[in-house]
Amino acid sequence: MAGFRDFLMRFRPVGLPDPAAAGGVPADRSAELAAELEPPLALLEETEAEARTIRENADQDAARRRQAAERTAKDIVEQARARAPAVREESASRIRDATEAEATELLAAAERDATALTWPAPRHSTTR
Predict the structure, then answer these.
(1) Which end of the chain has less neighbouring CB within 10 Å, N or C?
(2) How many C-beta neighbours within 10 Å does residue 41 have?
């Protein structure tokens, strides 16, 4: 790759204007520029190919991860569906037990209240 000094040399006058010289071949600036740009462009092509390979590998890795996540999700759902009846039964059992305990407590309270109401009332003396 050409250095900065070489870049500046392009703008340096070659010589003083003289009478026309013998015929010559003009410098091919576009060929010089193409030759100058060829090495960096080749490096860019290599980098582009490497980036393409990295993207393809990343796409494949992402597809594998998506498939694994889908399998995991399906397994979790299947396990949850398999456990659902047992969980429902356990929840119903807890609610039933709690309800029975509450009913027993209410019944005992009602019996206490009924007993308190049925005891003979103390006799009050009516002295006037």
Answers:
(1) C
(2) 10
